[in-house]
Amino acid sequence: MIENFIHDIPTKYYFGKDVIKHLDEELRKYGNKILLAYGGGSIKRIGLYQKIIDILNTGNFEYTELSGIEPNPRIESVIEGVKLCREFKCDVILAVGGGSTIDCAKAIASGYYYDGDLWEMVKGPRSLKKSLPLIDILTLSATGSEFDGVGVISNLDTNEKMGNSYTYPRVSFCDPTYTFSVSDYQTAAGSFDIMSHVIEGYFSDSDDSDLADDIAESILRTVMKYTPVALSDSDDYVARANLMHCSSIACSGIPEYGKRKVPWPCHSMEHELSAYYDITHGAGLAILTPRWMRYILQKDAKTIKRFSRFARNVMGLMGEDSYDLSIRGIEAFEEYIRSTSLPMTLTELGIDDINFEKMALHANRNQKLKASYVPLDEKDIIEIYKMCI
Fold first, then answer.
1. Which residue spans within the chain are E strands per DSSP?
2. CA pair distance 67, 42, nearest whole angstrom
3. 146-177 b/e (C-beta count within 10 Å ≥ 16 → b)
4. Whole-angstrom Cα distance, residue 357 to residue 354?
C-alpha cells in the first residue's frame, strides 16, 4: 500500500542564472545584521564573494564573517559561528558554499538559541529547534542541504559524525554557473552523493508508490547522463543545471513519498569512515554502495525483484532471469562509478580494517539498522567494510 506522508518544504527556491539579484530583497525580510559563512577560497576565486559583498554594502547591511568551514564541518566551526552570532547579535545567517557550509550554518542557527554544550545539541533528539533565519547560495551539487532541514557535523576528537534536524533554509539561491569551477573529483563525488540519497530510499519493500519510484529512477538516470558531460566540459550549463536540480530533489524526501521510511545503511556506514578518516563523503558512498548491494542481494532473495527493476529501469538492461539481471545491474553500476574515476576501494584511500569493529558498533547504535530494507547487524556491517578493502 502507499504510506501516508506530509509534504512540508518551506524553502523559497530561486533557480537559474543571475538569481542572486534577489538577494537584497530576501535578506531585508529578516534583518540587517548578517553572519556571512563560507568555506575555503573558492567563492573568492570565482568572484562570488565580491558580488555578495557589493550587494551587502550597497544595501547598507552590517555583516561579520565565518570562513574556513571544513568539507566535513566540525563542531569547532559551529561553536565559533554561534559565538560570532551572539556577539554581533545577528538577525540572519547567509551561508555560501556546498552542503558542508550549509549544514554548519544550520547547526549555528539552532545553536544560537541552545543553552548548553553544542556537541550535546548535535547528538540530541532529532527535532527541529528554534533557529535564526538561514539563507544560502549553493556552489556544489551534492548533499541537497539547500532543500532540507538536516545537517551533519563531525567531532574528530571523538571520531563521530552525527546528523540531526535543525532548520530549513528560508531561501536558497541555486545558480548552476557557480558550480562551473568545481573540480572533476568533487563533481563526481557530489554526483554520487546525489545518487546515494535516492538509492537509500529506493531500495525498500514498498512497491506501490509508482510515482516515487519513477521520480527516483529518473533522478538516477539524469545524474548518470549528465555527470560525464560535466566531467568533459565543466562549463556545460545544461549538465550543471540538471545536476543541481537533481541534488535538491534527491534529498528532499519527495522520491520516498508513499514508501515505508527505512534507515539509510550506506550513509550510516560512510559517516563512520568520514569520522575516522575525514574522507570525501561521496567518494566513501561510491565505495560502499555497490558492496552493500551485492551483500544484501546474497543475504535476502526478496531483493531480487527490486534489483532487477533497478537493472531494467536505471541501467537499461534486459533479461528474463531476474537474479542474473540483478547481478548484471550491479556490475553495470560499478562500471559507471569506475568511469567517473572515483576510488573503488578503501585501500586507495589508505584505509585498513583496524577500526571496522568500532565503526560497525557506532553505525548500528541502538540497533537502528535492524529496520533497514535488509536488516543489518554489526557482523554484516563489518563484512561489507571488508568487501571494500
1. 12-15, 33-38, 62-66, 92-97, 134-138, 150-155, 160-165, 171-174
2. 11
3. bbbbbbbbbbeeebbbbbbbbbbbbbbbbbbb
4. 8
Strand, helix or coil for residue 138: strand
Tell whether the torsion through CA atoms of 156, 157, 160 and 166 is positive or negative. Answer: negative
**Would you state the cell numbers that stand for residue 382, as one nine-digit string?**
563489518
Q: pLDDT tens, position by position, for the chain (389 residues)?
A: 899 999 999 999 999 999 999 999 999 999 999 999 999 889 999 999 999 999 999 999 999 999 999 999 999 999 999 999 999 999 999 999 999 999 999 999 999 999 999 999 999 987 667 999 999 999 999 999 999 999 999 999 999 999 999 999 999 999 999 999 999 999 999 999 999 999 999 999 899 999 999 999 999 999 999 999 999 999 999 999 999 999 999 999 999 999 999 999 999 999 999 999 999 999 999 999 999 999 999 999 999 999 999 999 999 999 999 999 999 999 999 999 999 999 999 999 999 999 999 999 999 999 999 999 999 999 999 999 999 99
Q: Please name every residue paired with 36 in a beta bridge, in sequence order, or none if there are none.
A: 65, 94
Q: How far apart are CA 267 and CA 282, in angstroms?
A: 10
| Residue bearing cell 565565518 | 66
C-alpha–C-alpha distance, residues 33 and 316, integer Å? 52
Parallel, antiparallel or unpaired: strands 33-38 and 62-66: parallel
Three-state DSSP class for 77?
Answer: helix
Q: What sections of 112-236 are H helices per DSSP?
A: 118-123, 184-202, 210-232
Helices 210-232 and 184-202, axial angle in degrees (round to 10) = 170
**Count of CB atoms situated within 10 Å of the CB of 93:** 30
Going by C-beta distance under 8 Å and a sequence separation of 6 or more, which residues neighbour residue 177? Answer: 17, 237, 240
